[in-house]
């Protein structure tokens, strides 16, 4: 449990579980090894056509060895709320993500969500699941709410 928590609660490991095509790069200087409530983390990502965008998240809640929450402050979504849950179970650790988001641009964003955003998020979390499976074992596919 501690090993999984230490990995998941370090912002430095996020790149290891993000697909290379996203061009993910942490831009926050001097980030500590462990996250804390109120921590602001800024990144550059290229979610669409290689176009670089800034994404800034805040770690809003943490309960050690149970969960943490990141919320977008600046970025591609109108709203992004991501809960990372873990709990000890027989034989290992159960992990679950709950992502609630709202695409930008109102009606056009809703269409984009149907056409590609939802599918791209599923691909990103499938990649994340495979990376975590490789490192630790089984990971539950996230529940995504729009």
Protein topology:
Layout: H1 2-8, E1 25-26, E2 40-48, E3 51-63, E4 67-74, E5 79-89, E6 92-102, H2 106-136, E7 143-145
Parallel strand pairs: 6-7
Antiparallel strand pairs: 1-2, 2-3, 3-4, 4-5, 5-6
What do you see in this structure?
With 146 residues, this protein is of the alpha+beta class. The chain has a single domain, classed as 2-Layer Sandwich (Alpha-D-Glucose-1,6-Bisphosphate, Chain A, domain 4). The chain is built from 2 helices and 7 strands, in the order H-E-E-E-E-E-E-H-E. It has a 7-stranded mixed sheet with strand order 1-2-3-4-5-6-7, with helices on one face. A hairpin with a 4-residue loop joins strand 4 and strand 5. The chain is globular, with a radius of gyration of 15 Å.
Write out key terms for the chains shown:
7-stranded mixed sheet; Alpha-D-Glucose-1,6-Bisphosphate, Chain A, domain 4; 146 residues; alpha+beta
Short note summarizing the structure:
The protein has 146 residues and is an alpha+beta fold. It has helices spanning 2-8, 106-136, and strands at 25-26, 40-48, 51-63, 67-74, 79-89, 92-102, 143-145.
- Into which percent range does the helicity of residues fall? 25-40%
User: Over the alpha carbons, how many angstroms does the gyration radius reach?
Assistant: 15 Å
Number of strands: 7
Oligomeric state of shown chains: single chain
